[in-house]
Fold Clasp N-terminal domain-containing protein.
Amino acid sequence: MDKFASIRADISLTETEDSWEKICRGIVSFSEFIRASSTNGTHEIITKARELHRPIINAMKSERTRLSGPAIDLISTLASELGTDFEPLLHLFFPTLLLLCARTSKVVVGRARSCILCIIETTQLVTVIPYFIQAIRDKSVSLRTVAAESTLACLNSLNPPDLEKEERTKDIEAFIKMSVRDANAEVRKIGKQIYQAYELLLPNKAERFVL
């Protein structure tokens, strides 16, 4: 059995009291496989991550933090190694990361938040922004807070020419309007910071924007 076949077999197990540690070992081994393979190109990594995305998502959602943690870290590894090539995997994993930000566990929320910020920083993909528009409408305060922090991170770290495209500026302006009116004071505070960052980054666009 080749190395990846063994990884696939472990990650694809159904989680039980007896199997979760083996799933976890498979996930850690897959992270190591990704790091070792990235120098040979990204196609193989993307193909294998797609193949295993369902069991990886199941592990991310696990109530066992000793399993969900390494699974979330795996997504950070994928983003860091793939960079902009992470885009074909964004729609597979990003919605789950946002869902985890609505959990009651501060540990899980913290890990998911860190992973989201890692994706923003390492992939430079502006296509993350529409996901935050959906999240700011959620009833979960922790999710709305992470969405606001992440949108601010986008304005502070992504390429301005990508952000100033009309579709993206509409998204940013829609997010600002919702966040500054949010029921939660922390979200409103970050919403104002997003607006200030928007004014600095794209003054011509901000000049025509009415809150």
Remarks:
- The chain has two domains: 1-123, 126-211.
- The mean pLDDT is 95.
- The CA atoms of residues 8 and 51 lie 9 Å apart.
- The two ends are 60 Å apart (CA to CA).
